[in-house]
Amino acid sequence: MVVVGSANMDLVVRAAGLPASGETLLGSGFETCAGGKGANQAIAAARLGASVAMVGCVGDDAFGATLRDALTSDRIDTAHVQRIPATSSGIAMITVAADGANTIVVAPGANARLTPELVDAAGELIAHAGMLICQLEVPLGAVRRAIDTAARHGTPVLLNPAPAQPLPDDLYAQIDVLIVNETEAQVLAGVAVSDAATACRAANALRAKGAHTVIVTLGAGGAWYAGPEGEGHMAAPRVDAVDTTAAGDTFAGGFAAARVRGAPLCDAIAFGQRAAALSVMRKGAQTSIPTRAELDAQLPAA
Do the annotations mark residue 181 as ligand-binding? Predict the structure, then answer.
């Protein structure tokens, strides 16, 4: 599969809670971790069984070298991960509370330099991929070019529209799987999602816009799915969360890996949920993403 998206260096501070506006808290630790939604999803898919190529940009700084190395260490093709001269790599400032909740602020850096032309250079990869995965931490123009290319060649498209922003109406019909959380569902569908019933309304609204299959993730509350293979709610595995960073990315990558292997929709969702559940039991972004062997050993299917 091909992932078109971001690579960031995560700068993570841990604290007892999340600060309110204007509040200063003392943290309990600091670490740097390779991250970014695109890179996280690529690594999740690779560790969970898929062959993956990444399309994106990093800076010519030390972070850029580290981010590329993190991808190649998981056997991801980085031929189309460009190092942009005189540009800093993207970074994410993350605060993680004791209960695993987090807040994230992203400075895009080189991610903002991903152009439609750089996507075109990977056109053959996209045309022959089993799936294209995109998010919105890179410019929408580049995402649209990737999706247009996939649609022309019959490559299935998975879009995780994060960070949330309104999408052009004509884009929805090109999306085979749209994965949204509660925040993204409200921005795109105008529905305040808090449970399965409201997730159902949001999913139906997004399908009415043209998305073929919609998955609304509800964290510990599971996921609602709706599409040609049916609709319903799937409960999430019950675990003790340590850090929810990259849980959504792990779900998306795991779901995609299973789907490309030919898994039915519900089986792919369950696989992604198991992967995400194991990830929240660990600290960090990419460091928390399990391999297929770890998942089968530590959180096997019921």
Answer: yes
Topology of domain 38-55+112-298, CATH: UDP-N-acetylmuramoyl-L-alanine:D-glutamate ligase (3.40.1190)
**Pair 44, 158: CB distance under 8 Å:** no
177-180: strand order across its sheet? 77-84, 53-59, 2-4, 132-134, 157-159, 177-180, 213-217, 223-227, 230-234
List the catalytic residues.
249
Rounded Cα gap, residues 162 and 132, in angstroms: 16
Q: Is 111 annotated as belonging to a binding site?
A: no
Q: pLDDT tens digits, residue range 55-102?
A: 999 999 999 999 999 999 999 999 999 999 999 999 989 898 988 788
Is there a binding annotation on residue 37? Answer: yes
Query: pLDDT of 99-134, one tens digit each?
Result: 878 888 889 999 999 999 999 999 999 999 999 999
What are the structural domain ranges in the chain? Answer: 38-55+112-298
